[in-house]
Specification:
Layout: E1 3-13, E2 18-22, E3 29-32, H1 33-38, E4 50-56, E5 65-73
Antiparallel strand pairs: 1-2, 1-4, 2-3, 4-5
Length: about 80
């Protein structure tokens, strides 16, 4: 079961193709470049961009990952 959530990009490394999203009072969510591309976001994201996304639970020992991502607000560039 997925939940819809909001958070801010903690960091995203475009070369390595991953980063994390910080949610208030919740576990950070893994963000992969492929999930951004599937969501139509081709130019990546930057720290502090505000996102809305589905939280996908992952197997034991790993945190959740983001999918169906929407940029709500870009951080100042």
């Amino acid at each position: 079961m997925t939940e819809r959530a909001r958070g801010r990009v903690k960091f995203f490394d475009g070369i390595k193709g991953f980063g994390f999203i910080k949610r208030d009072g919740e576990q950070d969510v893994f963000l992969h470049a492929n999930a951004l591309k599937r969501s139509g976001i081709m130019d990546g994201v930057d720290a502090d961009d505000e996102l809305e996304f589905d939280v996908i639970p992952v197997g034991e020992g790993k945190g959740p990952k983001a999918d169906a991502i929407k940029i709500l607000k870009r951080a100042k560039r």
